[in-house]
Write a structure and sequence with these properties.
alpha+beta, five-stranded antiparallel β-sheet, 3 domains, 498 residues, 17% helix, Immunoglobulin-like
């Protein structure tokens, strides 16, 4: 018989039957000898630097007694706070900045490897304010659930926009859907109109909006076959499910003289459906708090001239369009398709805020797509986006929409009359909805129109060098944001003693 004794060098020594030699030869790979016993686990990155509420992938490598490295699958845990970690090693930071020494643990066979995490806020300090947009909560029959941060990026009246958001948690109680709209951040919100969309469809249909306000009914969703980022990381497991395990940029110092370092890209492949001439790409994502911090930096740079900048945007439609286009090129998630002539733009994912994940659809025209797998590229400035799920649908499905306007006359129509919300204020709206047709499934969405103004003092001399540089165009704006990001990372590394 074979005695598989851990920690000895005589794994094959105790054989009492000739057949045992054959068995032992087959099982030798499963024996653990003294030379290949695990003696050390190294965790990387160590230390790791991550933004508040951001995530980073940890990996672990084992080392044997003979000095050889081993591939291992340890048990991951967090010992000293700072965030949470999944069974696959994805650490998600909390909202509190700080250095969390030896907090990430990877344990196997009684050996533990450790790593330190430096959690930093976007402003480099103790978790300064986040700037985004009005927050919408839905009543689910038992409690309020955050469901939307609406019309993100509309930071001036001239940038007013209409946004469509899925309300994942909205439930009709006695025929009424109740929403709670609040201004929770350091800003003033101006809401022109709110309407509830009751969308009825067949079961198994996914309904989601595009950035331009169109709504799509999607058939069976197909997952990617592969996904890699521009650093060569295999990120497939991070974007195949709407599970809160996100992909986001590595938090590293970039060479700003290298144009390719000013953006991060994710390339995703899907098996092509036979004879498909079009498809719908479904992206579930949200912004990081870094994006809202860059808005604050941009506005603060105007100093005492901020009021004048607002006046130009609000009073000149050309200035508003140019500013909106610059925002789109700098901060939005750009979607491209690989064709016979190279990468071709397909659409944009608009700024959605850091509060909640949002589903958005980008239509794909496959008529010029290159043969073979469908290849899609998502491009973002570093640290602006967290991507949770990407899927594709080749089948469109029908649906019907019932629009229920707000009972409040100020919010019933897009007419320039505004409901103003100062920080800390809010209101509730009740929408009476009809019963869904028999056999149909219902999805609720919110249509909202408005804008918001971040509460910043228009004081001091404008930062003319900053404003001059970003006026050079989207590439210059991306370079400036990466330079600021580099400074934050270096400061965090110095404070953490790395």
């Amino acid at each position: 018989m074979l005695h598989n004794i851990r920690g000895t060098s005589t794994c094959l020594a105790r054989l009492t039957h000739p057949v045992g030699f054959v068995m032992a030869t087959a099982l030798f790979a499963g024996c653990v000898t003294e030379s290949d016993a695990l003696v050390r686990i190294s965790v990387s990155p160590n230390p790791a630097t991550v933004l508040t509420n951001g995530s980073v992938q940890f990996t672990a490598t084992g080392r044997s007694n003979d000095g050889e490295t081993r591939s291992i699958s340890p048990a991951w845990s967090v010992a000293n706070g700072g965030g949470t970690i999944t069974s696959s090693g994805v650490f998600t930071a909390g909202s509190v900045p700080g250095t969390f020494t030896s907090t990430v643990h990877a344990k196997l066979e009684g050996i533990t490897g450790k790593a330190t995490v430096q959690v930093v806020s976007p402003d480099g300090g103790g978790g300064g304010p986040t700037y985004s947009c009005p927050t919408v909560y839905s009543w689910d029959g038992a409690q309020w659930r955050i469901d939307s941060g609406t019309f993100g990026g509309a930071i001036a009246q001239g940038l007013t926009r209409t946004d469509i958001d899925n309300l994942e948690h909205a439930v009709a109680v006695d025929g009424v859907v109740t929403l709670n709209v609040r201004s929770e951040l350091d800003e003033t919100d101006y809401i022109d109109a709110l309407a509830l969309l009751a969308i009825d469809h067949e079961r198994g249909t996914t309904v989601a909006p595009a950035s331009d306000g169109r709504i799509f009914g999607l058939g069976r969703l197909s997952a990617p076959s592969s996904a890699t980022d521009s650093r060569g990381h295999d990120i497939l497991t991070r974007i195949v499910g709407a599970d809160g395990v996100n992909w986001e940029s590595d938090l590293d110092v970039r060479d700003t003289s290298d144009v390719t370092a000013l953006s991060d890209a994710v390339e995703i492949r899907f098996p092509r459906a036979r004879h498909a001439r079009s498809a719908r790409l479904l992206i579930t994502s949200r912004n990081t708090s870094w994006g809202s911090e860059m808005l604050r930096t941009f506005l603060t740079a105007h100093g005492s001239g901020l009021s004048g900048w607002y006046a130009r945007i609000d009073g000149d439609s050309t200035s508003a369009r140019e500013s909106g286009a610059a925002l789109a090129q700098t901060a939005l998630l750009r979607v491209s398709l690989w064709t016979a002539s190279g990468w071709q733009p397909q659409g944009l994912i608009w700024e959605v805020g850091p509060e909640v994940l949002k589903h958005q659809v980008v239509p794909l025209d496959l008529r010029d797509a290159a043969p073979g797998d469908i290849r899609v590229r998502l491009e973002t400035p570093p640290s602006f986006w967290r991507i949770d799920r990407v899927a594709i649908a080749f089948e469109s499905r029908p649906f019907t929409v019932t629009t229920v306007k707000a009972a409040d006359s100020v919010l019933a129509n897009v007419d320039g009359r505004m409901q103003t919300l100062a920080t800390g204020h809010g209101f509730q709206l009740a929408f009476a909805v009809p019963e869904p047709p028999a056999g149909k499934q219902r999805t609720y969405m919110l249509s909202s129109t408005g804008w918001y103004r971040i509460n910043l003092p228009a004081l001091g001399e404008p930062n003319r060098e900053y404003l001059r540089r970003i006026a050079a165009g989207p590439l210059a704006m991306r370079r400036m944001t990466v330079e600021l990001r580099n400074r934050l990372i270096r400061r965090a590394q110095q404070e953490g003693g790395t």
